[in-house]
Amino acid sequence: MVEEDLLVNPFGWGVLILIATSLILSYRVLFGPTLADRIVGINTVTTKLVVILAIFGFIMEEYFFLDLAIVLLMVNAVGGLILAKYMEGAG
User: Fold this and answer.
1) Taking CA atoms, which of 5, 71, 72, 75 is between 20 and 30 Å from 47?
2) Contacts of 52 (CB under 8 A, 6+ apart)
């Protein structure tokens, strides 16, 4: 395991920026005016989480985080398709 402070590494700052923008984006998920806005917000937050997991796995040299990121990306893609199909029938 790397004995380095997370904020010394520029990737650590990238993770913090992604977390901050995800928290800002959570407003759109919670209070979005339409269902489509909420779905796009959830997909965006999930995509940011995938990138966070990949960077964090690289920093900590624990590569099972990459496996988790790939699985989450697949679930995000399938979930987006299912929600799009639902919205097509509802609209």
Assistant:
1) 5
2) 15, 18, 19
